[in-house]
Amino acid sequence: MKIKTLFLLLFSLVIFISCEDEEDDQNGTGTVSFSLEEISEIENATQSLSLNVGVDNFNHAGGTFTVTLSGATYGTDYETSGGSASFVLTVPANSLIASFSIIPVDNDILDGNKTLTITLSDATGSIAIGESNTMIYNIVDNEQPIVSVLNFETDAVQINEDDTAATPLNITFDLPTSNGGTVTFETTGDAIFGTDFTVEGQTATPFTITVAPGATSASINVLPIDNLDFEADKTVTFIMTEATDGVSLGTALTSTVTIVNDDASPFKLIDFSTTNPATISEDGGTLTLNFDISETTTQDATVELTVNTGSTAGLGTDFTIEGSTTSPYIFNVLAGSSTASVNIPITDDADIEDDETIILDITNATGGLQVGVNNTSNTTTITDNDFVPFSYVETFETVADLSASGFEAFLLPAQDLPSSKLFKYNNNAGKYSDVNDVTQSSDTGLVLFYANNQNGNGVLDNVIISPQMAVLGDIDVSIDITYSQAPEFNNAVVTFYYSETYDGSGTWNDADWTVMGTETAAGLNAEGYNTNDYKRKVMSINPTANFYVAVRVNQTIDDTFWKTQWRLDNFKVNN
């Protein structure tokens, strides 16, 4: 009798374990389906394109299914690894994928694009056909006219006002254009067409050029107009605004030409030096700004500096001008000077803040000096030195259970399924993601699994919460996530939150939490993530106080959506 009782207990334990851990089971059915709806290949492709048919789970004993291609002629338009337009693929036991390949047959005939419909059918063994059982495969005729994509070769060029030769602005083509076309240009800037510059072959702006069939490049030739006037350098920006027929617009659509003045000034001019530092650390002490004078002064002069309203640094709080908090600030330039300088003491505070800019303008000059024309404004950025890097990473590799990591998991009121059905610490070789490379594997993480053959239908609604993060400001939260049960029966919504007001009590209040993002198995699948493929989900937030991170899973388990499985790994918080 004792032996019989022991046997029954062991048998019940085996049944329980098989229900809890279905990952080594071969008694299920693997449903095959396409993850893509449509794909295209050029007719003259030199390598075959491998197409994968996904199996929604590996708890199956294998089987076969038939692949049928229709819509074009086998041997004339394409060939397959199966050797015909209809062939059988074998799915080994526990496999998550079956593959075959297609390669177009190239010809020299302009015969248009071909569209194939690939259909999965006639499954045998432990394999079933899913709802996504068709895919479109387009063969793009490479003899069709080629539309070239146009971009400026460079975004900026400098020319002298007295140049006698035109300067080309080159336009690159990604491919030779079959039919050619036209390109329209507009201009902006303070340089005026007909007064400061011309374009060879054009009489005004906007203007249009013609691109010949077979062309591989184009250009417009810019010629400056010389005059005797002393003036500031001028700029003109050329913008490609429209392309027709066999040419199209790319992304580098502007090119700016600076026309450098060649005429001497009749006055002594003062400008900021072009060698002034662009940045200074908040604890850098004193910023010295230098000035260039076009000719040595012959009498004492004054120069007026004004803080530009665009400055984000405050005069008197973040900096002073020679100790002064007054704007405009006037300083003296002695006779016989060819340079000048002013000192800008920088205030070092303890505030964590954004970098700030000091913008000063030369607004007036006396004593034979005049305000310059090319560099009358100077911008210097004060870089904050109070920032402390924050980096939190939990890989679950060095802890033995959930509590050791500082995480807590608990049910929400809507869950009526057993209290054990929530995220748990799990050690399972190769099932989790590597902290440095999400495409590689690790052995530990968090898992949630439920199927209605365990405790019937009901509602799953539970949450896992991180330790409190003692950091604020611009923050990136990163969590690796994957689904292990396909969207056909896993419609759980996984929601990511953060909270500055949660008190760590284990009591959930929706008003405490702000949504950072959501994921579903269907959404991940549409992004190209198959079952057990991890996505490294990065979410940006800007908390003003210490905060917690939470992940919530909600699914109504019924006879259609009857099971779910999710894994999480590598919680990261960085500022």
CATH architecture of the largest domain: Sandwich
Mean pLDDT rating: 91
Q: What's the count of strands?
A: 40
Number of domains: 4
Tell me the span between the first and last alpha carbons.
Answer: 66 Å
Q: Which oligomeric state applies?
A: single chain
CATH class of the largest domain: Mainly Beta
CATH topology category name of the largest domain: Jelly Rolls
**Parts with pLDDT < 50 across at least 5 consecutive residues:** 1-23
Helix content: under 10%
Shape, principal axes of CA atoms: flat
Features:
Immunoglobulin-like, 6-stranded antiparallel beta sheet, 5-stranded mixed beta sheet, 575 residues, 40 strands, mainly beta, 4 domains, single chain
